[in-house]
Amino acid sequence: MMDHGYDKETGLFLHLGGQSFLPVPDNPTMDEALAAFRFLRDEVLADFPFATEMDAVAAIAMFFSKVQVRFLAACPIYAISAATQSSGKTELTNVVSLSIDGRPIATQPWPDGDEAEMKKTITACLREGHSLVMFDNVPDGHKVRSTHLAQAVTSEIHRDRVLGLSENVTSPANMMFALTGNNLSFSRDMPTRVMQCYLDPKRDDPQRRRFARANLKGWCLSNRNRTIQAVLTILRAFHIASWESDEAGSRFPVWARCVRDPLMWLAGHDLLRVFDDVA
Length: 279
What we know:
single chain; alpha/beta; two-stranded antiparallel sheet; 11 strands; 18% strand; globular
């Protein structure tokens, strides 16, 4: 679907909000898919000091998850971590929102140890219609634990009582959560739910780094069409290839098929290994 309006074949209605998007090839070649990947890796993410190439692929997975999140039954938490402040953690997560949604990311404080507050936050974010929410600046060295967050990212339906009312609200739990913080670790029930991306500026004063683009926000908005086109080109090429992974699955089978498999097919990096590293 590329045109505004009702599509008889799928039964879906596409509302573009008056915007126009770059066309996606019907039959993209492997070369076109690789060019799209290089655009994401080398241009969109040019300013970020990934510790390893797997960390870069985990960051690219955020774009794939964001584009498809409403169709995923569940999605892992994306945790952007580093050893020091000013490494680009918040900026990286914001780049995903700017590039896909065209607006800054919704942020929330981390409700440290307050499970009632965590549940209220999740419910409020779902009712407001957010598809990506970031818990920004989790305390340094914090061990992330939350029963309600763990449930929210592996459940297809979220149910909670409305604050101040004697009624419950039920809604699809089809949204993404991101965390940012330094030297994060995770409690025993979290590692298989967390896709970690680690940044390493390799200097003691990362705040003094020179960026490739002085106005990264403006660049993301100006190149939003290209970013969306790149993600969709890779997904289309993967669909046409009919590639099947021989590797074991995860607790996120739809995400694995729609996000992990395309990147493994194209870039050769298996994101399931990230879950193992977090554990």
